[in-house]
Write a structure and sequence with these properties.
single chain, 300 residues, alpha/beta, TIM Barrel, nine-stranded parallel β-sheet
């Protein structure tokens, strides 16, 4: 089965730091994403919240909505409260026929705090882990029933950050709780993406292809920088511009018959890293590497 190539709008406009790409229009983002060769794009802060507005914009540039971020607060909220909060985005994604919702817990997250070192990220004790996994399972079953799978995104600075965290979450939740694997975040947390793919192939729903510049990663870890400091210094980049070799990872995806989306995502300052230039670079690298792995790429 062929895979689909998408891109995240964060290269053009950063929702956590609106001053990065603040003047970039949604139309420029969509046009350049399509120009670079992608057939899908994830949602972002500048995207319309109604399908009647969004679908025509996507169709104009021959793009599909290939998911998008949802920041949950299930540690504090009840499942019923979270269902109400996700309702608008759920309807939008259903209308746009997105493959899943990229779901992450942001309660207590330090990912946007420039003064919080990554070593101070929130963690849960055993009792809270049990309660949290129960809540995530309920949300997973609810979203599965709605035809919009929950694809959990492990993320630096949050309660689910490391490979061990990710494995614990998947081992203690219902099968409806799927996974968004982010290669950059997994490497940053000193984890092994290939091991996760091999061990949880039935749970893998979505893949973020984020690369890392090794020298900045090493500096970020040794100096215990904040997440914001790390990405502003250039820790993240597109595939083919960092230290991750995607060929072994793609070989495992091929063995597992993965046919979902591969989404290029890299938090960078657009003033320093031209979004179109880097989008093209990532697309070319993925296309070439997939070709070497004999994985077909779906065309619109």
């Amino acid at each position: 089965m062929p895979v689909k190539l998408g891109v995240a709008p964060i290269a053009w406009s950063n929702d956590d730091m609106p001053e990065l790409g603040g003047d970039t229009t949604l139309e420029q983002c969509l046009e350049e994403a399509s120009q670079a060769g992608y057939i899908g794009i994830e949602s972002g802060g500048k995207f319309p919240k109604s399908s009647s507005e969004l679908i025509p914009k996507l169709e104009k540039y021959n793009l599909k909505l290939c998911s998008g971020w949802y920041g949950a607060n299930l540690r504090k909220n009840s499942v019923e409260d979270e269902k109400k909060l996700i309702k608008e985005q759920l309807q939008l994604f259903k209308d746009c026929q997105a493959p899943c919702i990229v779901f992450a817990e942001v309660s207590g997250s330090i990912q946007s705090d420039p003064n919080r070192r990554l070593s101070t990220r929130p963690q849960m004790e055993s009792d809270e882990w049990k309660k949290y996994c129960h809540k995530i399972s309920e949300m997973g079953k609810y979203l599965e029933d709605q035809g919009m799978p929950l694809a959990y995104h492990h993320h630096m600075g949050t309660i689910i950050e490391t490979q061990k965290d990710t494995e614990r979450l998947l081992d203690n939740t219902h099968e409806s709780v799927k996974l968004t694997l982010d290669t950059g975040h997994m490497l940053f947390a000193k984890g092994e993406s290939i091991k996760i793919i091999e061990d949880y192939k039935t749970r893998l729903k979505h893949v973020h292809c984020k690369d890392i510049r090794k020298n900045i990663l090493e500096k970020s870890l040794s100096k215990d920088l904040s997440f914001r400091q790390a990405f502003l210094e250039g820790a993240f980049t597109v595939p083919g511009d960092g230290c991750i070799d995607y060929k072994p990872l793609f070989e495992v995806l091929k063995k597992n018959n993965y046919s979902g989306w591969l989404v290029v995502e890299a938090e960078q300052d657009p003033a320093k890293a031209n979004p179109l230039e880097y989008a093209i670079k990532g697309f070319k690298y993925l296309s070439s590497t997939l070709g070497k792995t004999n994985i077909q790429i779906y065309q619109n």
